[in-house]
């Protein structure tokens, strides 16, 4: 049984949990989903999801709860992490905002809300390396990956990278949990 932790300090926790369960079934894997709100639980997880929300708040809560170092150790142990939207901002090397204490898991610089505000949200179909068909992406106050170091770009929207992989960590600018399509969760956590 694969134990997948969804960091539950903010964001679409139940939506990610549902996507993880669907992805596990599609990958013919048994998975237990655990909501993580405090330190001490990350070390027992085989994979993690770092959902969106508000990046300054997420980074502050991860640090104050002592989960930031546990998440770094998880990724250093080559265990899968899926970081979406604000989760990608927190997972990045540089959020270009001193209020965000990044985890430095993804060698990329990320601009918060670069695709616009809430009213500028949109849906787009993106081609993702590793997926047979395009993915229906939901962009809500989405960050822009504007500089990529050693991370690999898996998808772009226009010229902008919107899915990146750095070792065991997959980061998306969009919210894959808001569609019934579980392929991003499968790609990040079960392949």
Question: Which helices and strands, and how do they pair?
Answer:
Elements (H helix, E strand, L loop, with lengths): L1 E6 L5 H14 L4 E6 L10 E4 L4 H11 L1 H10 L4 E4 L1 H6 E3 L11 E6 L10 E5 L8 E5 L4 E5 L3 E6 L2 E7 L2 E4 L10 H7 L2
Parallel strand pairs: 1-2, 1-3, 3-4, 4-12, 5-6
Antiparallel strand pairs: 6-9, 7-8, 10-11, 11-12
Describe the structure.
The protein is 25% helix and 32% strand. Helix 1 (13-26) links the parallel strand 1 and strand 2 (31-36). It has a single domain, classed as Rossmann fold (3-Layer(aba) Sandwich), CATH 3.40.50. The chain has five helices and twelve strands. The protein has a seven-stranded mixed β-sheet, sandwiched between helices. Helix 1 crosses helix 5. It is α/β, with parallel strands linked by helices and 191 residues long. The chain has helices at residues 13-26, 55-65, 67-76, 86-91, 183-189, and strands at 2-7, 31-36, 47-50, 81-84, 92-94, 106-111, 122-126, 135-139, 144-148, 152-157, 160-166, 169-172. The longest helix is centred in the N-terminal third of the chain and has 14 residues, at 13-26. The mean pLDDT is 94. The radius of gyration is 15 Å and the shape is globular.
The rough form would be described as globular
Count of helical segments? 5
C-alpha Rg (nearest Å): 15 Å
CATH class: Alpha Beta
Strand portion? 25-35%
State the distance separating the first and last CA atoms.
15 Å
Strand numbers in spatial order across the main sheet: 2-1-3-4-12-11-10
What is the share of helical residues?
25-40%
- Give the total of domains: 1
SSE topology string: EHEEHHEHEEEEEEEEH
**CATH homolog superfamily:** Class I glutamine amidotransferase (GATase) domain
Largest sheet: 7 strands, mixed
Number of strands: 12
């Amino acid at each position: 049984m694969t134990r997948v932790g969804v960091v539950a300090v903010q964001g679409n926790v139940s939506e990610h949990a549902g996507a993880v369960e669907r992805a596990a079934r599609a990958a013919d894997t048994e998975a237990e989903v655990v909501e993580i709100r405090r330190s001490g639980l990350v070390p027992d997880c085989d994979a993690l999801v770092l959902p969106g929300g508000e990046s300054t708040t997420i980074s502050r809560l991860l640090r104050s709860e002592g989960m930031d170092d546990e998440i770094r150790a998880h990724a250093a142990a080559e265990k899968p992490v899926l970081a979406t939207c604000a989760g990608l901002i927190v997972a990045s090397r540089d959020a270009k905002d001193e209020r965000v204490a990044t985890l430095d898991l993804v060698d990329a610089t990320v601009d918060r809300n670069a695709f616009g505000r809430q009213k500028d949200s949109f849906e787009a179909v993106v081609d993702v390396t590793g997926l047979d068909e395009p993915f229906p992406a939901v962009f809500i106050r989405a960050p822009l990956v504007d500089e990529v170091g050693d991370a690999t770009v898996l998808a772009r929207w226009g010229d902008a990278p919107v899915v990146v992989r750095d070792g065991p960590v997959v980061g998306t600018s969009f919210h894959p949990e808001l569609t019934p399509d579980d392929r991003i969760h499968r790609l990040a956590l079960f392949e």
